[in-house]
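Service request form, structural biology core

Requester: graduate student, group of Dr. S.
Request type: structure prediction, single chain
Budget code: on file
Notes: please return the result as structure tokens.

Sequence provided:
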Amino acid sequence: MDDIFCKIIRKEIPKEFIYESENLVVFPDINPSADTHLLIIPKKHLGGIQDLTKENKDLLVEIYSVVNMLVKQYNLSGNLYRVVVNGGKAQHVPHLHFHLLGGVWKKFI
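Core staff response, request fulfilled:
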């Protein structure tokens, strides 16, 4: 695919990752909606949640393990935080991704 997230994952668009594994990258949202606004993106292109299958269960476990790690790393465990998954036409980029938002909300996404 050729969406912006695929280009970032292939390092065609420079981006500093705060976390990277064989399956995921994490970096700050360019237009944050909260004090902490991180994007968690699978390296494998999945258009949205409708593309998830049983074969993706390990990926989902890793995503939420990374969310838990980031909640601790950014001291969000005592504060309100949320994980948002955009799907379908609500996605600005047609590549499955998760938003971790915490702290003071600047706007609702």
